[in-house]
Amino acid sequence: MSILSEFKAFAVKGNVVDMAVGIIIGAAFGKIVTSFVGDVIMPPVGLLIGGVDFTDLAITLKAAEGAAPAVVLSYGKFIQTVLDFVIVAFAIFMGVKAINRLKREEAAAPEAPPAPTKDQELLSEIRDLLKAQQKP
Questions:
Q1: Exposed e or buried b for every residue in 71-107, given b needs 16+ CB within 10 A?
Q2: What gap in Å lies between CA 62 and CA 70, rounded to an integer?
Q3: Beta partners for 71?
């Protein structure tokens, strides 16, 4: 099988298309969460701790000299990114938990086999009687 035909078989599988859609939706969801954290959550938190804007929280390691820019450790942006991650991770966890619950319910309720008909019961009895007669 050539590489091109293998790639074609791989690319047209439903799982690959589902994965691509998931990645696109995940990227859009990440942008929404980033905006939610940066524009809705962090301003009130900053206000509660004294009117601080988290994106401005930083430690200057080396001041700017001439054309060289300052070396800054921006821990406020890091805190905001960690909060973004926690919200996205929690949302994904809740989605996976819901999917797993649905799968468990499907697996836990297998259908019981249908009861044998009277003909089948009679044939089973005859089989058992014949087996008993053949034993020495």
A1: eeeeebeebbeebbeebbeeeeeeeeeeeeeeeeeee
A2: 6
A3: 62
User: Hey, which bits of the chain come out as E strands?
Assistant: 59-62, 71-73
**Tokens matching residue 51:** 């009117």
pLDDT digits (tens), the chain, 136 positions: 688 888 777 777 767 777 788 888 888 888 888 888 888 888 888 888 787 777 788 898 888 888 888 898 988 888 888 888 888 888 888 888 888 888 777 766 677 788 889 998 999 999 988 888 887 6
Second CATH level (architecture) for the domain 3-110: Orthogonal Bundle (1.10)
